[in-house]
Design brief:
Length: 82
Amino acid sequence: MGPHLWKLVRDGEGGVATHAVFAAAVKQSALFGDFLKIAVGGAIPVTKNVLQALLDLCAWAVTWSLSSAPAIEADAKAPEST
């Protein structure tokens, strides 16, 4: 996890922080991602497509947050225009 994602974990609300950590764990660990696909997906076969979509969304969210964080941070630091 990069520094921008850590800021989400530190400063974000409970759900935001939880999702950030979960998404980072899935992206970082192929073993964890495979476990989720097999164990959780196997336990609930109807939702295998939903689980894959969730894993893909988590990976995308981490990538997006890391690429967008500098711009968001710059906007937050910019003085407000009146």
